[in-house]
Design goal:
The protein is built from 2 helices and 29 strands. The protein is mainly beta. A hairpin with a 3-residue loop joins strand 28 and strand 29. The longest helix is centred in the first third of the chain and has 15 residues.
């Protein structure tokens, strides 16, 4: 009898034992029955301060700008209410940052507590500053402008805007500077009009997996702080999903494979030789974001492909891989509730965050 009781107790203990703890746990989730939160970008300029922005879409189709902010490393998130629909964020340091919106450019000098509109206009997609006064603003139809007085005045970068080798409808989606001298702009033909009234998973054209009128990825590179640019056709026919910038002169791109193909590649572009080299192939997944560290480490966020249909507007399971290099990747455990069509990765000190277009923010513990 005693032996039976011991066996029963052991079995009860094993049955109650918790499963493996997710490495990527839910830090925030927008859980409202009558609306959804599509996060377009997230920035973490310090280990404690992160800001995620996007759009709230009501069930009746109405939309409004929205954001959430943490000042304790993701333990708590509080509402942030931008005055215009956000597109992207850039922070130079913990206090000073810029937000590209649907109708202008905004600046904060107090860690997002207040924002001031410094430029009105439409069609901008990305901004970057190398110091408080030197910055670049990029967008649709070959739009690229520069400022040398903190955004009070802007001028077109004519070498980029007037280059005959670029399509007229080229949209510069990325502007990135490694340091005050070395920087790049990357773009592709736009093909569709902006419509931010729907979340990305209901309106796939507005994601980075949208379908432009034609393919082609183009770029410019500077090594003298933007005074002169080397212009290049990175790929003549493929479409761009995401770009990341490990070091000057060496970019990583994820191109969109054909809809029937169940894989996603990371391709390295060498600016000196002009060659593209496939570095890594992910089977049964679409890569949504890639972030590299100064030590060569890599974090990849991808969305699992269910069944035989890769191009679907339905959110898929979030998968995240991490490694010291692309050859040493391992899949990490992710909260089972995490699904998305698009994921944005960002590092915050010792932590990592992953924000989804379905209103969830994951933190790597």
């Amino acid at each position: 009898m005693r032996r039976i009781l011991i066996i029963v107790a052991v079995l009860a203990f094993l049955g109650a034992a918790p499963g493996p703890v997710s490495r990527w746990q839910r830090s925030y989730f927008y859980d409202e029955a009558d609306s959804s939160f599509n996060i377009s970008d997230i920035a973490c300029p310090s280990p404690h301060f992160c800001l995620a922005v996007g759009v709230i879409v009501e069930n009746d189709g109405r939309s409004r700008p929205y954001g959430v902010v943490t000042r304790d490393g993701g333990e708590h998130w509080n509402p942030a209410r931008p005055e215009d629909l956000p597109v992207s964020l850039f922070f130079l340091n913990e206090n000073e940052g810029w937000m590209v919106t649907e109708r202008g450019l905004w600046n904060t000098q107090n860690a997002g507590q207040t924002w001031k509109k410094i430029k009105s206009g439409t069609g901008w997609l990305a901004v970057a500053f190398t110091d408080p006064v030197h910055g670049w603003l990029a967008g649709n139809r070959r739009l690229i402008e520069a400022t040398s007085d903190g955004g009070a005045h802007w001028s077109l970068v004519s070498q980029l805007t007037q280059y005959d080798g670029f399509p007229q409808d080229l949209s510069f989606e990325y502007v990135h500077f490694y340091d005050p001298l070395n920087g790049e702009v990357i773009g592709e033909p736009s093909g569709v009009a902006d419509d931010r009234s729907l979340p990305d998973w209901m309106n796939p054209e507005m994601t980075r997996y949208r379908t432009p009128a034609r393919g082609g990825v183009f770029g410019g590179r500077t090594s003298d702080g933007g005074r002169t640019w080397t212009l290049n056709t990175i790929d003549p026919g493929r479409r761009l999903a995401v770009a990341t910038f490990p070091e000057p002169g060496r970019d990583w791109f994820v191109f969109i494979p054909p809809p029937t193909e169940l894989y996603s590649d990371i391709t390295e572009h060498d600016w000196k030789s002009g060659l593209n080299t496939t570095l890594q192939r992910m089977n049964d997944a679409r890569i949504s974001d890639v972030v590299t560290g100064a030590d060569g480490s890599v974090v990849i966020a991808e969305i699992a492909i269910a069944g035989r249909l890769a191009d679907t507007p339905v959110p898929g399971k979030v998968r995240i891989l991490q490694g010291d290099s692309l050859t040493q990747l391992h899949e990490e455990t992710v909260d089972y509730r995490a699904v998305a069509r698009r994921i944005v990765l960002v590092r915050a000190g010792a932590h990592w965050f992953a924000a989804t277009d379905t209103g969830m923010i994951l933190r790597r513990n």
